[in-house]
Amino acid sequence: MCSIGGVLIFGDLDRERAAAIEAKLRAIAEAATERGRDSFGIAVLDRSGSYRVYKDRRPAPEALKDMPEMVGVDAVAAIFNNRAEPTTEHVERKTEDDIQPMLGERIAVTHNGTIANDVELERRYGLRRRSRIDTAVLPPLLEKVWDGSLEGLQRILRDEVVGSYALAVLDSARPGRLWLAANFRPLYYMWDRQLNALFFASSDAYLQGDVAPWDGNYVKRLEPYTVVEVGVDKTWRSASLWKADAEPGRRRRALVVASGGLDSTTAAAALLRQGYEVALLHFNYRHVAEDPERRAVREISKALGTPLIEVDMDFFKLAGRSPLLGEGEINRVDMGREGAEFAHEWVPARNFVFIALAVALAEAWGYDYVALGINMEEAGAYPDNEMELVRLLNQALPYATGPQRRVQLLMPVGGLVKHEIVRLGLEVGAPLHLTWSCYDKGPKHCGRCGPCYMRRLAFKINGVRDPVEYDLPPETEEEFWRGTRPYVWRPPERRG
């Protein structure tokens, strides 16, 4: 439970650059005090393979006042730690061995998180550590079983270590190399152009602060469940720490949030064609079109041969404030054009809530993906259909789910507009004749709300008559569909 940070230094140092790098390290460490105030420590590795170490029982702002100069002209890397001592690892009288970074004979480690199986590792490998604090098991473990390769460190962290971590490793036998790794603990790195150095810390805010874009440097988050090896020869290698990635050939499983409409049905059929194992997840959330949507998704499930999970919920009745929930009239102005381009029927955070529940079910039931019918056309009116939402949520999901199951969001029709979705649905054998798109409860599609307007036009653009019935005058329908060909359903081909 800490904040970690440090630097890898490129090229020869003079005293001026060394002083500037140390000043920046001190500033980062002081900013990082919010994540740890129980002690501060830093280890600096020089090019000859010698460590220079400073540890203090006080928090960084006080300790730094008395810390001697640490970054000399021969320095090549440094790692530091601001410790937040967990209740379960309280040490009444700390010695230097109880303060991070932890050092072995040649390995130095700074770590944010918890090593839950430290005692087991100690017994299994006959390790001798210098502190009962869990992190102290890492230097002797690495010195005993690590072969020095990126792949070797990947195996140890993925298969041997149980717990949480963002960590940095130095090896005095190989100065000029730095290893960084994280599962769901945060870790960011920044390339400082002026100082020709790579800094890292537990938050991007510690690295850069509030600066104008033209004064800043490149900052990026280390992807969760990733280990990287960085060298002063400008090598950068990375490897995955996801356990699922170590299981080649395992069939991909997708849980499709299915409304019974065109978009999610096409998404499910497209995934089936790509070889995914698919199940449909449908939410009955007490909206106006609940009955026809439920009938549709049940028929779609049978037609595709996929399991169907239904969730009954009345949460959105509490949120309210939407015509889809029976509060106000559904927009049917100008035969649906306005309803297609304006979020008149917005249900507060509906997709966000559905995604959260779907991810929880996917994690619990062993699905790798949650797929959505999010698409580019509806993103013009509804913010929760914007692809950026999915991209950002995928970045956040490793921090919201357990470490044993990687769940990611898919948007098979995300970059498509409605007529392209219909075309794809026809190509992949989606049972479009069974779908329900109308905001109203039927028995026929109204033909005037936003979804009906887009649907009819999308089929016409593809030269195919929509197989569903609309509650419109027969002469209007005959004129609209003149010149189109009949709809023919061909069940999807499955791969895998």
UniProtKB/TrEMBL annotation:
Recorded superkingdom: Archaea
MF term (GO), any: zinc ion binding
Cofactor note: Binds 1 zinc ion per subunit.
Known pathway: Purine metabolism; 7-cyano-7-deazaguanine biosynthesis
Binding-site residues for ATP, renumbered to this chain: 258-268
Every Glutamine amidotransferase type-2 domain range: 2-233
EC number assigned by the record: 6.3.4.20
Catalytic activity from the UniProt record: 7-carboxy-7-carbaguanine + NH4(+) + 2 ATP = 7-cyano-7-carbaguanine + 2 AMP + 2 diphosphate + 2 H(+)
InterPro entries listed in its UniProt record: GATase_2_dom, Ntn_hydrolases_N, QueC, Rossmann-like_a/b/a_fold
Keywords for the protein's UniProt record, in alphabetical order: ATP-binding, Ligase, Metal-binding, Nucleotide-binding, Zinc
Cofactors, names only: Zn(2+)
Primary role: Catalyzes the ATP-dependent conversion of 7-carboxy-7-deazaguanine (CDG) to 7-cyano-7-deazaguanine (preQ(0)).
HAMAP family: QueC
Similarity annotation: Belongs to the QueC family.
Protein name as it appears in the record: 7-cyano-7-deazaguanine synthase
Species, as recorded: Thermoproteus uzoniensis (strain 768-20)
